[in-house]
Design brief:
Elements lengths: L1 H21 L7 H15 L1 H14 L5 H10 L4 H11 L3 H15 L4 H7 L5 H13 L2 H56 L1
């Protein structure tokens, strides 16, 4: 929200002030010049910034290995095909590549838990649950339990983080908007002192 508010102010509001300041003919404060320069840079490269933000969200997307594999495996999809689907749904290039390597290992006859264990990016609990599921013949149930565990863990972490970050976010938003307002009105106050 802070990024959106700041971007709107820099793209729409600051240029209006810039036109007004150009008619003053006086030297502008350094802080105002900095904000005007930031506004011009954002107006020139807003598409690049938008693409970078989108790429960052895509790159940090949480992998959904256990949930997708459990769903496809319980639907009687063969394990190799299920791993192919899981790789496509991972949403992260590193996890996709690791899952495809797991699929290749399983294709050559390696057990799923052993193939997962060789990839260091999967948690130990997932490795253990997969091993138990393979030994008991209830792989889909064990993967379902692992998925529920990790989803609850993520939900709890997000809730805790959100409650901790709310005051910080409000402070940052206040500083950003307040800083922009001060930068835009500082020349007007200085002009009033001269007159």
């Amino acid at each position: 929200m802070a990024v959106i508010v700041t971007a709107v102010l820099l793209i729409k509001v600051v240029p209006v002030f810039a036109e007004t300041f150009s008619s003053f003919g006086a030297d502008l404060p350094a802080f105002t010049l900095f904000v005007l320069g930031l506004s011009e840079a954002l107006q020139e490269s807003w598409v690049t910034l938008l693409v970078c933000i989108g790429a960052a969200f895509y790159g940090f997307k949480e992998a959904r290995f256990a949930r997708t594999l459990s769903t496809t495996f319980s639907a009687d999809v063969p394990i190799v095909d299920a791993l192919e689907s899981v790789a496509g749904a991972a949403g992260n290039a590193l996890y996709r590549d690791a899952i495809l390597k797991v699929r290749d290992d399983v294709t050559t006859g390696v057990q799923l838990h052993a193939a997962i264990k060789t990839r260091k990016m999967f948690p130990i609990l997932l490795q253990q649950m997969t091993a138990i599921g393979e030994e008991s013949g209830a792989l889909d149930d064990m993967l379902e339990k692992a998925a529920i565990h990790y989803e609850e863990l993520v939900d709890n972490s997000v809730d805790n983080l959100t409650s901790l970050l709310e005051p910080l976010i409000m402070s940052v938003l206040g500083v950003l908007v307040g800083g922009l307002l001060i930068a835009m009105y500082l020349p007007i106050f200085q002009l009033g002192n001269v007159v």
